[in-house]
Design goal:
The chain is α/β, with parallel strands linked by helices. It has two domains: about 10-110 and about 260-290, no CATH class; about 120-235, Nucleotidyltransferase, domain 5, CATH 3.30.420. Helix content is about 40%, strand content about 15%. It is built from eleven helices and eight strands. The strands form two sheets. Strands 6-5-4-7-8 form a five-stranded mixed beta sheet, with helices on both faces. Helix 4 packs across helix 5 (about 95-105). It is elongated, with a radius of gyration of 21 Å. The two termini are about 35 Å apart.
Length: about 290
């Protein structure tokens, strides 16, 4: 399919001014034979006005216009949007509605079956949360532990992968690497023993000496990713996010970072619509009783 996306907000408003136009665009991406209810796949609906459609079979209500505007706002802003900001711009009735809408979009930012990283990949961990007294090394109690993988692109930085992990045991770290790095790649790590014993990869260890300042020079790419991630969490979201939902924020950061060189925000919108069409619907109850 030829890539077909709006180049700016004016074009978005013109092309998707009605629910019917939005629905037609979705049909190009997911439903070539016409609209289908995201819950029961029934193809018949009632128009309720205000951009709302109700499935004739299961009575599920869909507001496509609001979704399109939300996806445009999320992708057209370099650092994303907070739930409060989305509520204000879209005129939503409650913060809870905006929060749920954003989390549903974040769920769509990870493409099913996405390619694993190749070439040379730096792998490390970082933390999110305040200081914890009485804990040393890489032990955690209330902080979140985040695994990071950053692909080398010449002297620069290519694609990344992030995931929240429970610990730094060998089983956990090896599982993360297997999920995000293609076998045969070079995996570059620090001297943590949990990385020992890797199979299917060429393991390159860089041992840190007594000078802690050297750590960022040994694995410069993942250290840069950790710094940018924390700056984004503190800036866009003022650090006000629950750790229960941290994975979704990691997905959004990864989606944005891996497309940072895109010259068109419209193309980011197009990619998000594509991926949103592939993700099963999630209820507010499922989001608030989140177990991932």
């Amino acid at each position: 399919m030829v890539e077909n996306f709006p180049r700016n907000l004016g074009e978005l408003e013109h092309r998707f001014a009605s629910n019917e136009q939005c629905r037609d665009y979705l049909a190009l991406l997911r439903w070539p034979a016409g609209w289908a209810c995201p819950r029961c796949q029934n193809r018949e609906s009632w128009s309720l006005g205000r951009g709302l459609y109700r499935c004739r079979q299961c009575r599920y209500e869909v507001s496509v216009t609001v979704w399109f505007r939300a996806m445009w706002l999320v992708t057209s802003q370099k650092n994303g949007a907070s739930a409060l900001g989305l509520q204000r711009v879209l005129g939503l009735g409650s913060y809870r509605t905006a929060w749920a809408l954003l989390h549903k979009l974040r769920r769509a930012m990870v493409r099913p079956g996405r390619d694993r990283l190749t070439g040379t990949v730096e792998v490390d961990e970082t933390y999110w949360g305040g200081p914890e007294k009485g804990l040393r090394g890489r032990l955690i109690q209330d902080k979140a532990l985040i695994a990071m993988a950053a692909q080398e692109d010449g002297v620069g930085l290519g694609r990344i992968r992030l995931a929240r992990i429970p610990d730094v045991t060998q089983a956990t770290l090896h599982r993360f690497i297997a999920q995000v790095v293609e076998p045969g790649a070079v995996v570059r790590t620090d001297g943590l023993s949990g990385y020992l014993g890797l199979v299917d990869y060429r393991h390159e260890r860089r041992i840190q000496g007594p000078d802690l300042k050297v750590a960022s020079q040994l694995l410069p790419r993942v250290h840069l990713v950790a710094s940018l991630l924390k700056r984004w969490l503190l800036g866009t979201h003022q650090g006000a996010l629950g750790q229960d939902y941290l994975e979704y924020y990691l997905d959004e950061f990864t989606f944005r970072f891996n497309r940072r060189k895109s010259s068109s925000r419209g193309k980011l919108f197009y990619r998000l619509v594509q991926q949103a069409a592939q993700v099963p619907p999630a209820t507010l109850h499922a989001l608030t009783h989140h177990h991932r």
